[in-house]
Amino acid sequence: MEFAQYITYGVINGSLYALVAIGLALIMGIMGIFNIAQGSLAMIAAYGSVLFFQHMKIDPFVSLALTLPGMFLVGVFMYLTMFMSMNKFDPGQKLRNSMLVSFGLVLIMETLATILWTANERTVTTAYSGTVMALGDLRIPYTGIATIILAIVVIFGLHFFLKHTTFGKSIWAVSQDHDCAMLMGINVKRTTLVAFGLGIALSAFAGAVVSLHTVSPAVGIDWTNKALILIVLAGVGSINGILFAGLLLGIVEALGVYLVGVHYTGVVGLLIFIIVLMLRPQGLFVRKAGV
Amino acid sequence: MLEITGIDVFHGDLQAVWDVSLIIEGKGITTLIGSNGSGKSTVLATIAGLLKPVRGSISFDGVRIDTLPAHKIVDAGIAMVPEGRRLFREMTVMDNLEMGAITKRARQMKNETMAWIFDVFPILKERARQRADTLSGGEQQMLAIGRSLMSQPRLLLVDELSLGLAPVVVQKISQTLDEINKTKGIGIFLVEQNVVMALELAETGHIIENGRIVGTGKASELLASDQVRQAYLGMEGE
Description:
heterodimer; A: 291 residues; mainly alpha; ABC transporter involved in vitamin B12 uptake, BtuC; 12 helices; 2 strands; 3% strand; B: 238 residues; 4-stranded antiparallel beta sheet; 26% strand
């Protein structure tokens, strides 16, 4: 049964990876902006959850009602001040510039978090932290179950929003043909602003879950690393693929821990990253190359 | 009525349109003909708001529109069928049509307009749930026209209707445009390299060369004129 226990943790971790990556995938797939700071934003959102819990005893899943709109506003501010002006560049230039700017943001946010909240690890300890559901010998933490459900709801919800609502479809239309979307009467400026804000707001979901584990200023870039592996696995532009890529990475990592030990977790992740890049560079869940 | 008064338009540092003035009657079919690079598509893009004139003004039914962003011009009643169709390739036929009806006014009438477009182009109804990039060239042009009509325009701008299409398909689609114009009273402003087709369809024609209007007249007279015969029809015969 020990093996199944490892896989369970893999699935839980994978769901969390997917929650971190989904905002990055949305912003990259829809707008061609490469936001390396996504993990760091999840870190900031996680501190938000920690502070709401410490000072007001608000559960991290409840304080989403505050951290989601908060992160949306952060996204709106970031877009207006830093990323909107990049629209005049060609796609390659836009990708490189956004990568550089967001890398600067990673450094700023990490330093800021260290100054504000010290480098110590923090965590939210709720009444249900550490409680588990027993399935035979299998132990599943309730926080883990919440993580899996949240990942499924958020990612399939986002997919549904983009493919089946008028506003979602107009975001998708702008991503396919910016000028033509204007000719259809779509307010492209407002649509891209909201789409970017939405992509950043999604980091609040990851933040809520991260706050139940451990938060420190340095975790941001680690989460981004996982998110980047997921995007390569899923393929740029794939939304549902992110969830499957997350589960794949989580399970492969868990197998790595089971077979070769906990020190090689990172290596196993990067190994499948390289293998996928070599054999299927367009990603596992995208039918043809390119967006 | 669309009134263009003395516009100068630039692509970056390069001036593409020089002091162009045109009056396009609201109810008819008007065409602007010219060779490749003559500035005719630039005029169209400027009306639609994708480019802004450096000098001059454009007004539609008395309202100045050259200062409006492109999406507001759609709201004001002008829709454009872009050159090369520019469909949302990954979306279905139906979703493409839905994107055409994004303004508040158009959205309220979405279902009626779509039923009318399926009536005009029955093939689109058959293909409603197919992805746009699985359609043939002619079907794609029909979808592009249908999508722009979804916004309930009073004036439809059409950029290079005939581009890349077989003559028989072009003829069929231009007949449909004529019907739409006659039955719905939607004005059409067509920009074309296919001079014969354009002048046969339109009532009024304008000729543009090197960014300047060099001729205006009744389409049938232009078609018979030496100016057009030598400059365009002679060239086509080579």
